[in-house]
Please model this.
Amino acid sequence: MAVLIPAGPGRAIMALLCVLSVATVLTACGTSATPGGAAPAGGSSNAQDVRPTPADAASLAPASAVSDLRTVVAAALPSQAIDTLRLIAKSGPYPFSKDGVTFSNREGRLPRHSSGWYQEYTVITPGSSDRGARRIVAGHDGGRFYTDGHYASFHEVLSGVST
Model:
């Protein structure tokens, strides 16, 4: 749609008002600038606290470990990792096409299981122009593992909620 702005002294003001109107409409519609045009991982981008409640945490990770790896409580992870755990819990939608692909555990840092046991998911890294080095790897037994070093090491993620 073309907007005609009449010539004359008020032209700059009219152009500015048009730009502001479009920006207001886009903001009200919740337009996103995240990779792939997806909504921000885990929901809205408002200023609410992203730390999980106990009930929320219980859906994000198991209460007890499934491995002998070092552990981390979900609430201690970066907010983007909590967002990714929430997406996994509700089966997407994911911001990257490679999210949910099989993680083959070639490095052998996670417990050994048959092929297809693990799936990997991107943890968005603010300021990164690509997927970055942070991932959540999910096992079929509910195990969740976090790496911020592109598979160099992992922590098993626990809910922090007693069962």
User: Anything to note?
Assistant: Residues 1-5, 15-48 have pLDDT under 50 and may be disordered. The first strand starts at residue 71 and ends at 73.
